[in-house]
Amino acid sequence: MTWVSLLPDYSRQAERYDETRSASPSVLRSLREGLRDAPGWRLADIGGGTGNYALALKREGWKPVVVDRSAEMLAHAAVKGLETVEADAQQLPFEDESFDAAAMISMLHHVEDRGAALAEARRILRPGGRLVLKGFTGEDAASLWVLDYFPSSRAWMKATHPPRAAFLAELPGARSVQFEFEDMQDASLAALSADPERVLEAAEVGATSFFERMQRDHPQELRDGLARLRSHIAAGRAPRRPGTATVLSWMKAPGGEAQSCGQDPGFGSTGAR
Hints:
single chain, alpha/beta, Rossmann fold, eight-stranded mixed beta sheet, globular, disordered N terminus
């Protein structure tokens, strides 16, 4: 089945991506837990962009390969000393069972066929390998107060952010945790929602895929929504509530069958592999 992608072309975002974004401690905590007990250290960071999370994980001992279909994004990752491969997540150029772990961080909503991308990530994992997915489910998207200012976005946000149950159906046996952002390091819309001034700034320069799409498809609604947000900020009535995200961890069992990750109920809490 083909799905709607939020922003398939990320070349414009690549121009200034690292000026405002870095690896979020809120995300890294759950990634570490999800990757724990992988059979080795070779990691495919699928849709890894400029490599912010790959670099953070490399410093913790992982041997990451940043995979992305945007040559512009990968150029920034290469400057950081990271191994890069230009490829589409829906058709990875790797042999079966060639990685110990795979990460898909805030990228599936930009993919046309989510099922194909997940199948490819599972294929390249060795038995016992971990797939860790961090993303925004329908429940997470519903937590965003920003959408109230841009009502037409609700339809395509719903189309690109399926409910948590849909992900769990495609990753049977996966463990999941929903968390609220405690920092704004990755400058995602969910993280920036803690500070409406930062949301306004991101909107004005198109610093997130959400606002780039609003500018492309609904420019008048974007202007009207930002004017309303400015007035609410000036009156001290703008919301200051961070959004949520979801991390899922799935383990490839011998024979390629799904298996529960075997982690304790504290999955998602602070901890290192």
